[in-house]
Amino acid sequence: MSDIEIKRALLSVSDKSGLVELGRALAARGVELVSTGGTAKALRDAGLEVRDISDLTGFPEMMDGRVKTLHPKVHGGLLAVRDNPEHAEAMAEHDIGAIDLVVVNLYPFEATVMRGATRDEIIENIDIGGPSMVRSSAKNHQFVTIVTDPADYAELLGELDAHGGATSFDFRRKCAAKAFAATASYDSMISQWFAFADQQQLFPDMLAINGRSPVILRYGENPHQQAALYTPVGPHGRGIAQAEQLQGKELSYNNYNDADAALELVAEFGGGDPAVVIVKHANPCGVAQAATLSEAWEAALQCDSVSAFGGIVAVNRELDGATAEEIAKIFTEVVIAPSVSDEAREVFAKKKNLRLLTVGDLPNPRRGGLLVKPITGGLLVQTRDNGAITEADLKVVTERAPTQQELKDCMFAWIVARHVKSNAIVYAKDGATAGIGAGQMNRRDSSRIAAMKAAEAAETYGWSAPRTVGSAVASDAFFPFADGLLAAAEAGATAVIQPGGSIRDDEVIAAADEAGLAMVFTGMRHFRH
Predict the structure, then answer these.
(1) Distance (Å, rounded) from C-alpha 448 to C-alpha 237?
(2) CATH classification number, 387-521, choose in 3.40.140.20, 3.90.1210.10, 3.30.460.10, 3.40.50.150
(3) Of the candidates 302, 275, 298, which has an alpha carbon nearest to the alpha carbon of residue 467?
(4) Can you list the alpha helix ranges (DSSP code H) found in 163-226?
(5) Which residue numbers are catalytic?
(6) Residue 74 has pLDDT above 90, yes or no
(7) Roughly what angle, to the nearest 10 degrees, separates helices 37-45 and 19-28?
(8) Strand order in the sheet with 244-247
(9) Is the peptide bond before 423 cis (omega within 30 degrees of 0)?
(10) Which candidate, 97, 101, 142, 388, has a CA 20 to 30 Å from the CA of 430?
């Protein structure tokens, strides 16, 4: 494929950043500028000679600008296969001139939605002529160069300089791929707005999923896998993908995954007492609330100091220097906080590889949205698990009701359990996790593993008894048999919180009564796979 000299350019942009500089550079290279509406005005105001699109087509812009570029003299100039004799004859017969370069970016649909515009205004910001020109140009990239992103203007000019005022096929092909991605993303945004916002369709007939600005990661879960991070196109909440990295190595795929789990859990404590979450392989291995962050850190670490090595730490308020000093005593991959004090930054600056992230406001744990999971041959889509309970929702099912302290520990354990991989068992006492059992194939083993970790912690710290003694235990789903509950009782738990709903609930309740446990049902399950 040969180089194509740029003789005529059509410019029609909503985002006018860099427009005047580009126009001057093209004009200096002898390129004829054709433009529309506000773009033409901006170029003329800069002293550039511009030909109106209406002069090219012979028709005025009409219908409030809805119709201006949808014309054969525009699309004929874009779509003609120039070495095809029939196409060349049609161009000559109808006085259609070739357009070599198209610079277009689309109406600001996303920004219009984001600022809460009215429905009529949103509809008016659905671009029609722009995507049509982009697609025509991209389809005919053998002859036409299409640029849709102001960030590419410098590369375009460099290409012209390198090829004597022409563009290469490789450059045009690359631009075409980006152009089709731009229109696909744009249409996806519009379809999502119509489905979710305009018509309240939770699961539309066609689900459009898109992302932008990939960050290429070193590798995926394992070194032989490739990976990238995309951020959603359209309205979305801030989260770990938008965090500001203050220092440290690049985040890996696993770092992002684990950091997201830590942020989601610590957000549950957003407005409460200082809280610290330690995560390893997407599971919490220590969670605590206390009067200060440093006290919460100590209590969280004591739950499972072995697993905390190389973990992810998240806190629910500005990270102070004293807490940073304590965290820095063990190897930590990532630390996440709404903000970080100067003293804390100085502490972590000595740990060059530690990744330090700030997220500003914590995400709303009750927000809506969809979760998408690929499976072979399809996608599983579900709403976020944003369900929550209060103490008023609890149903006491045993002879003994929990004390106020047991009830408080139950609620704390329940919050943590919803963020632990199933089958999940969480022991908690005095605002801190005492033992966590995650991802086992049966609930009894999760109970025993959590108790074992608590026993190890007691030995490590020289306690007279594990913290599971006198604790509350949470189960993310019902106990199908009494064995898991009895294992918790053996570990010293005195109160239980679980969803209930098993066909053997009566058997489990009877076992709890016999063991002297207080048990409450939530009526809500929190599986996490």
Answers:
(1) 38
(2) 3.40.140.20
(3) 302
(4) 169-192
(5) 139, 281
(6) no
(7) 70
(8) 244-247, 355-358, 332-337, 311-315, 275-280, 283-289, 432-437, 425-429, 472-475, 495-498, 518-521, 395-396
(9) yes
(10) 388
